[in-house]
User: What shape does this take?
Amino acid sequence: MQMRNIEIKARIGDIESAKRTAVSLCGGGPAALLHQVDTYFEVPAGRLKMREFDDCNTQSELIYYERSNVSGPRSSDYLIELISDSQGLKSVLEAALGVTVVVRKTRTLYLYENTRIHLDEVDGLGTFIEFEYVMPEEGSSADGEQTVRRLMRCFSIGEADLLEGSYSDMMMSGNPDGSA
Assistant: This one.
């Protein structure tokens, strides 16, 4: 089933301050601390990545998504499939499609209403914050944008702080400032 987020990404200088704000908003500590490796594959449209976790009890995910590279709240349509044999499937995808980039990060995940707050420490790029408002079936994009903008104010994120591209774009372009 295809899903949709309304999301933003921004660079943050003080991750500890962001953690304190997240704890205050969410009423407690993080929902999870995740060590993720995202392998991006060459595809003609959108993005296709395999997400693997250091936690042996967590299944890997194959994620396809389409999203415009614009700053500000943006829509992201995505599909996620859980994978039990990630190494076998990754070998097939590498042979068939080729790998464009591998992104390694530590993600501290907080849950606020139906929004995922990610505090990311990305190898080679720095520290970032993402908000992903998960669209309910009957929800509107306007509701998601309103929630994301409210969170931006809570975390003191201005329009100039917002990034256009994905971590993969930044890694491939060698441009860690976040422009695509």
